[in-house]
Amino acid sequence: MIIRPFTGEFRHNIIQKAIIAITILGSIWTIFSPTYFEYLVAMILLLYLAYYFMQSVFTVGIFLALFYQWVQVSIKAIYGAFTGSSLESLTKYPEHISSAFFLSALSLLLLSMGIRQIIKKLEFSWDDLNFYINQYSVHKFFLLYLAFNFISGFLFTLRFTIPGLFQAIAILSYFKWSLFIILFILVHKKQKLLVPFWILVAIEFSTSFISFFASFRSIIIYLLIGYLSLRYISSRRLTLIGIYGFMIYLVAIIWTDIKMDYRQFLNQGQQTQAILVSKEEARNYLKDAILSYNFSGAKETREELINRMSYIDFFSATQDYIPSEKDHENGKVLKQSVMHILMPRMFFPDKPIVEDSKHLTKYTGIYFPSYAKGVSFSLGYTGDFYIDFGPVLMFPAILLFGLLIGIVLLSIHSTSPNVLWSFGALTAAFDILYKFENSQIKFLGNLIWFWIIFMILNKFIIPHIDHYLKE
């Protein structure tokens, strides 16, 4: 039985009011800043995202994904406004950095408008959502989550064995977060298995660091999505979210400062992404690094974090190179992205591997090391649309791309067995939407694979296990 049912009182007006208050106070504080106008544009864009994507429990994950992109676009403008720094002083590629910001902000606006135009048709009933929450067994869903974790872990070891399996298995792993968010809602709405659930979260969080690319961020994000989805946000809860955000900031600062040394320890100085030490050794090294950490160099680390989070710099470098040194491609990049999807590696094993660094080097004229050095740098989908269509025609293309994303999400919702499964699937879409740095070819490819995998799950898998999960 549901202890705390959902009601129609979901719209988080207080978040919008908080953004408006920050915008007004910030506009007074930063009025003489060289990035004052950029700050206002960034905050207005954030208000738009919050207003249209925080109206439904189904779009909380989409909001946080677009918010993450907003941070990647706006973080230097915000930082510059409050420190009195110009955008040009915060980048290695200053000549077109202001243009890169405005083009990126407008691109994100149009992408979100396209998504919103379609998913506003998404219909559900609060009574239906409560009904299906009441139908499912928390214990059975808990076991399903554990079982899928084991299965997906096994499949992940096979991802390189058969050509074409990698992307399908990677996208299938997103289903884990679909199950996680449903389990989160069931546990907290029914007030059952709270202690085992949070023990599981603690275990997953601690073990997530024992990998080359620590995946703790996913757990933090999906916990935040779950919390925001549970109930109406009051002033008190907004304060708690602020505290949670500050804790995330501290984790980000510490991780930014220690991760290169940690990765050097994991691969023992080899230029690979392989882990060459035991889990116990990795755990002990990480524990010692965290416990001995001090914040004496926090300012430098903060600036490094901002540089890593920001993703308009390479776009600035691209504008410096195109069209002055190389002409716009007139759709060639988009055509390559589409052909890459239409030629599955399973049937075309010789299909070229997507190397973001080589693509970035080609369209900036600047050398960037790639997979051979154990790293990768990408331009991002906005830069790719600019390369193809220029600073004007790129915008209709990005709007159409947003419409396509909306169509994919709406079709997954429409074919889901019920609203609870739909909620899980749309929340898992966070993983395909949150990266502003995603190249067009990867963004489009992941989107199509996400649609294929979740349509298969909705049509052929979930209906066969659904009745076993009910009370």
Automatic annotation (TrEMBL):
Keywords recorded for this protein, A-Z: Membrane, Transmembrane, Transmembrane helix
Name of the featured protein: Oligosaccharide repeat unit polymerase
Transmembrane intervals: 14-32, 39-68, 97-115, 142-162, 168-187, 199-225, 237-256, 392-413, 419-436, 443-462
